[in-house]
Amino acid sequence: MVSPKGLNDFVIRFSNINGTGSASANNMFAKSVFRMGIPVSPKNIFPSNIQGLPTWYEVRVSEKGYLGRREGVDIMVSVNPQSLAKDVADVSTGGYFIYDSTKPLHHEYFRDDVHYIGIPMTELSRTHYQDPRQRQLFKNIIYVGALSALLGIEMSVLEGIIADQFKGKTKLIEPNIRALQLGQNYALEHFDCPLPFRLERRDKVGDSILIDGNTACALGAIYGGATVMAWYPITPSTSVAGAFEKYANKLRIDENGHKKFALVQAEDELAAMGMVIGAGWNGSRAFTATSGPGVSLMNEFIGLAYFAEIPVVLINVQRGGPSTGMPTRTQQSDILLSAYASHGDTKHVLLFPATPTECFDLTATAFDLADRIQTPILVMTDLDLGMNDHLTAPLQWDDSRQYDLGKVFREEDLEKGVNFGRYLDVDGDGICFRTIPGTHPTKGAYFTRGTSRDEYARYTEDSDAYVRNVDRLAKKWETIKTLVPEPVFYQGSSNSKLGLVFFGTTTYAALEAMDMLKQEGIAVDCMRIKSFPFCESVETFMESHDQIFVVEQNRDAQMRSLLVNELELHPKKLIPVLNYDGMPITADLIYRHVMQQVSTKQKMALL
Amino acid sequence: MTYIKPKFRHPLLQKNEVGYTKSDYEGAISTLCGGCGHDSISAGIVQACYEINLEPHRLAKLSGIGCSSKTPAYFLSNSHGFNSVHGRMPSVATGANMANRELIYLGVSGDGDSASIGMGQFVHVIRRNLNMLYIVMNNGCYGLTKGQHSATADAGSTSKEGVTNPFQAIDLVSLALELGATYVARSFSGDKSQLVPLIKAGLAHSGFALIDVVSPCVTFNNKPDSTKSYDYVRHHLEATSTIDFVPIKKAIEVEYDTERAVRLHDGSYLQLHKLAPNWDPTDRISAVNRLDEARKQGQILTGLLYVDPESKDIHTLEKTTARPLNTLREVDLCPGAEVLEGINGRFR
Fold this sequence. Notes:
Shape of chain B: globular
Structural class of chain A: alpha/beta
Radius of gyration of chain B: 21 Å
Number of strands of chain B: 13
Order of helices and strands of chain B: HEHEHEHHEEEHEHEHEEHEEHEHHH
Largest sheet of chain B: 8 strands, mixed
Helix content of chain B: 25-40%
Oligomer: heterodimer
Number of helices of chain B: 13
Low-confidence stretches of chain B: none
Number of strands of chain A: 23
Structural class of chain B: alpha/beta
Strand content of chain A: 15-25%
Strand order of the largest sheet of chain A: 11-10-12-13-15-14-21
Distance between the termini of chain A: 42 Å
Helix content of chain A: 25-40%
Mean pLDDT of chain B: 91
Radius of gyration of chain A: 27 Å
Strand order of the largest sheet of chain B: 2-1-3-4-8-7-13-9
Number of helices of chain A: 19
Low-confidence stretches of chain A: none
């Protein structure tokens, strides 16, 4: 049996039953790795269910700082009899299978190439705790305690996490620490500790934080000045509203205890978008958060906001589609839906954050862009980014930053007698001035509509006026290309003819794959797209490379289609690298795809 | 095409207390059919806003899609307007109201816009008691698509094409009462003396005010056997009361009859001259019973049906700050870098 070396470099997966309180124990484990200064990347793999079904929590530990998912499971902590067969099968050769040994494991679950570590979790918990709920909860803490011995987690780190968690409920600290010790002592007494897979304190996380993208988006909305949020519950976006409410209730209360925000749980996604449009029209910064099915429902309204030119921010936390699809799995499969949402000629601005820090920054920026451009801005995250904790740079805010409210005529402007036409392009950039209802007693009122209109917002069916208006919108689209965030380039100096393009959560795996390829002597220029419409620099990159791998998490290579369509590129140049099984993409997959293509090409050259 | 009215105003036109002439409350020339009931309702809105001395820019008018939803272009041209999408005006109005609680919101909808495609939003805007006046211009048919029956057409009604409607009607007024609406009235586009005070009181009401106005479609649904025709409505009209609206300022000066007066939340009054027996405007059950009785007798009961003078709108229920949210800036909204550093600390 090979014993792999795994100092600060392994994947551990916890197998639990949904609704048994395992989440907080598993979080405690991930946080302890983080607090030992070692980069960590936890992923929750959960069912669309509240109680009873199998759920997994996979943690990658990587001293090198690779935060994407990695193939293979080195350590399995199995606390769910329902999924035993699968869990045993999923362990890599030479890995460890840690299980609840209160009842003996059936012989069919034993593999020759895996190490078995039995901890009587249920029995220890039953012996030391009386209350049935406590027995269940502390069973989870007991396995964390066992892991502290097996993997070398510093006890003081775990104690610190427990102290933070139960601040103000000090009574709960002692029984939790006792549970940790029960597990720890059992492991120390029965096994050689630590295992070859183990942790050792490092200083590799700096001032980073461990936070999920949905919370970061909500904070971005608070800092970006959002005052109205309308939403309808849908996984995986729901916690954006939850976090917005939580922080707004702390940070947005006036001197009388009243709210400086409005949060409306709408009757459906259609209404949610209608409310955001109404608030945006009336001069508030407003947003919604939803996922694919919600965006489908919002289509008509998104078209209205595009055509009537109303600032709207939509956070699309993508999940597995189509239809109800895989509601608790991740994908990047709403690219085309979002880019071209609604009937008629429509195009929308998309932003692609790759980290929670960018979720914060780009959500705040989305409000400035929405007001500046007067159009819907869609922040494209996904379940992986939104719901999983990620190691990320701390959130930062520059106190001198002012909100860009865009082109708005105020009372004093109207009083001066400006020539106000709501759809009059006075600056030649396709973006017109607007007024907010209630501004002036006799000047600046206009009629907003989804029907065709002239420059002064008067209804018209005149063909020339219609064409002038939609051509101006096309001109505005060109202006937008200069306003949206530029792409990020990596390894640009390699002068390679090969390009690797990615965005959002494919970034983690793509950057790791870039390093893996480099080790094989294959240099690829990398570009991370941050926005749509594509900036000129995106076009330059695409044109200056012969073969470009486009990495994304959907079946139909939607970003590739968007690039081909918008930049009029030859489709053969763009090679799709796709992952769409609902699990976050791995570096191994990207590496294999690129190597396959490259070696084919090399073979062709030899012939 | 667009009709623009001449801007010239006679200098001696009478002005109201806030300095506006009645024509300042008008809009573009209507493009609806001659004799359309909706135009009478638009005129009623103009009259009511002029009489209560409303500054036009303090009101936002919103609508969905359909003949009725075109009317906001035909009144209050000094107010911002929003002709949204079919059946979705309530959500747009909700968002607008959240952004600025100080404006007055007037929503105009039709029977198709409210009772069919927009039923979901109609129900929920009532549930939230959004502070707005919601006028349904109810003609029992889809005028703009040439006369199909709508969900408020009475069973047995025959369209111009000769199709008889076999299905029972949705009565928006009964539904609103059932849902807990806090101001419910019905009127007839041909009865301006009743409609104007109802609009005034609806605008003053703090919470959701519904006026369902039977408004005959002269082109597609004005046959004598249609229950939404001028002839039928005139012959079957039964009023709960005649009312006068007494605005806040005047309320102090006018002697009102306490037995007949309902004091609204903002301090204005409704003076009622009751015509219906066994009915109390602040008793929801009596309104429901009286409506039922009228229906059995083939009558169309009009007037104020129910009002809750203690109504609390969504901002009160949700404890929103007094300042309109759309006036708040960085200093009010952004917690700043130091607070953010504290938040970062909790994620370490």
